Amino acid sequence: MLRINLLLLLAVMLSAIFLVHTQYESRKLFTELDRAESEARRLATDQQRLQVEKRAQATPQRIETMAREKLQMKPASPAITQYVQDGAAAGAVQ
């Protein structure tokens, strides 16, 4: 009878230790999940902000202004346009 009681006590102790360990792991995983979700929300907010900034930077007026001022580009006109023909294509036409 004493052996059965000791065996049952050991089984209960192992079960209790396993339960505590499982609860600890569950809480740890829940905390990690919560952190990951908050990081995902932060990244989604940053993405939206960056898309708004991208749209603001890519307006046609801003691009034209930068092309004229920083790159010193001029509008295309027939006076400054040069047409280049490929030598192979020119030989085939003749």
Automatic annotation (TrEMBL):
A Pfam family: FtsL
Protein name: Cell division protein FtsL
HAMAP family given in the database record: FtsL
Organism whose genome encodes this protein: Comamonas guangdongensis
Keyword Membrane in annotation: yes
Entry keyword set: Cell cycle, Cell division, Cell inner membrane, Cell membrane, Membrane, Transmembrane, Transmembrane helix
Domain of life the protein comes from: Bacteria
Family annotation (NCBIfam families): ftsL_broad
Membrane topology: Single-pass type II membrane protein
PANTHER family noted in UniProt: CELL DIVISION PROTEIN FTSL
GO aspect biological process, one term: cell division
Locations listed in the record: Cell inner membrane; Cell membrane
Subunit structure: Part of a complex composed of FtsB, FtsL and FtsQ.
Function as written in the Swiss-Prot or TrEMBL entry: Essential cell division protein. May link together the upstream cell division proteins, which are predominantly cytoplasmic, with the downstream cell division proteins, which are predominantly periplasmic.
Regions that span the bilayer: none
Gene that encodes it: ftsL
Record family assignment: Belongs to the FtsL family.
Xref: InterPro entries: Cell_div_FtsL
